[in-house]
């Protein structure tokens, strides 16, 4: 096979065989194919697309380009959850202990944040002593003993995807649905899950901007997962506004604790309940979603989910005292609020812009090499449709630089829209 011929085939609208896709991915991973040829192929795929069969074959080729975890030693059906990324998306920190407390094993690999999207691993690292790198043996043993482990992705997990994504990022070929689907699903399959629950974000703060495209991506990933023997379900959820109230690493840990204690963002809990019900059903712990939701509610109200969170932190070397004493988490030097001068409703929250403000405070990275400040960020006083009483914070800024604090306090007023008129709450879950 010659790469030239394969580029021409896709340029002219042809369909690749499995062998051709295997050749492309294997050769590119081994540096036999130069970036300029792969860039040409990616652009041809961007314009001409791929069939579902091609996308499934591409997914599996990337999944097998590096390590594939064997989690067969873990008792039970392992179900993974993946979010396509957004702002104040703290679902894993709530969902993992909640589902584990109901008896389903949670063996999860998560990523770091980049740009305006937060990363689960960064949030966990704000807990003093927390280890997010475990050996495969420790990972499996922790899940069998405690029912839960969440770690960073292995360095040799889907190396083809890492190379392809870096190239897509600089060649304007990121937003291709087949390429997005294969990128996400290759990592989930290589991570060893038996089942996969997907949360596809849509809106201003998400990669997918319109509901039709988000549903198309969700359905394609479900088809890929099911076609390779992984029970897969997907939901499309709103990311026009931040999901939770906290934007920033240690702040999101605080919010996760609040939710597990029965407080915090209702939207965050609602998404966790929907995703968690699917996870319990796929894992065979519940017979249907109604029973699963009752189990999840009981785990919350009884305190079992919070206890499981403490157990999870301790098992990975973290200081579980943070659950009862949040002052043990990284603290920002400067904290200042923008308060309501009268009773007001929140009319709009621009997720992308608020995420970027938090990133510029230091809560996120503009490049993968950037270091982050675990203590800084934004705490919102409510979501769209909520009322903020006179004197209460509309938003609070956490910063370690006085100039950045002043800048952020002014900047957020452009992207948090308030009104004295009643505002309807937007739809949270579209599918």
Give the tags.
431 residues, alpha/beta, Transferase, Pyrimidine Nucleoside Phosphorylase, Chain A, domain 3, Pyrimidine Nucleoside Phosphorylase, Chain A, domain 2, Aldehyde Oxidoreductase, domain 3, four-stranded antiparallel sheet, three-stranded parallel sheet, 14% strand, PYNP-like_C_sf
Summarize the structure.
Helix content is 46%, strand content 14%. With 431 residues, it is of the alpha/beta class.
Question: How would you explain this protein's 3D organization?
Answer:
This protein has 431 residues and is an alpha/beta fold. The protein has three domains: 47 residues, Transferase, Pyrimidine Nucleoside Phosphorylase, Chain C (Transferase, Pyrimidine Nucleoside Phosphorylase, Chain A, domain 3, Up-down Bundle); 245 residues, 3-Layer(aba) Sandwich (Pyrimidine Nucleoside Phosphorylase, Chain A, domain 2); 89 residues, Pyrimidine nucleoside phosphorylase-like, C-terminal domain (Aldehyde Oxidoreductase, domain 3, Alpha-Beta Complex), CATH 3.90.1170.30. Helix content is 46%, strand content 14%. The protein contains 16 helices and twelve strands. The strands form four sheets. The protein has a four-stranded antiparallel β-sheet, with helices on both faces. A three-stranded parallel β-sheet has the order 1-4-5, sandwiched between helices. Helix 5 packs across helix 12. It is globular and about 70 Å long. The mean pLDDT is 94.
How are the SSEs ordered, and which strands pair?
Elements: H1 3-11, H2 18-29, H3 35-48, H4 52-63, E1 79-83, H5 91-101, E2 106-110, H6 120-125, H7 136-146, E3 148-152, H8 159-170, H9 177-190, E4 195-202, H10 211-227, E5 231-238, E6 246-247, H11 249-260, H12 266-282, H13 289-301, H14 304-315, E7 334-339, E8 344-349, H15 351-363, E9 377-380, E10 387-388, E11 393-399, H16 402-415, E12 416-419
Parallel strand pairs: 1-4, 2-3, 4-5
Antiparallel strand pairs: 6-9, 7-11, 8-10, 8-12, 9-11
